[in-house]
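Protein folding task:
====================
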Amino acid sequence: MAVSLDERLAALRATYHRLDPAEAAAAAREGALLVDIRYGALRDRDGTIPGAVIVERNELEWRLDPAGTHRLPQAVSYDLPVVVVCNEGYASTLAAASLHALGLPRATDLAGGFQAWRAAGLPVAPPDGIPTRAAPSIAADGAHGVG
């Protein structure tokens, strides 16, 4: 039987605690890694969350796998608390579920995404006209692309 995307999102969200903006900010202060998976046009239009790392969605699993050669320098443990941020809190649910499947049980996402963060009055680095770039990996060859 087919399941709608809304039903799938609801089922996934029932398996973990999503964070509201205040909780996400507190988690970041306590050492959680905020990961912005929004595409560049949105980051460049709306700004970014100070301290969040930028990881393109299609590279997320490679960047956060602690055993991977293309991981972020911060991705040192499968127990790493991760808060995934998308624009409005939909794609981040799917991303968090993928990270759970990868073995990162403390991955969660920001309910309402970047837009909820901004609406809550939390810090946002405004766009400066310079295109944002994804965070580099630890790949020995210096390559940033995977897949």
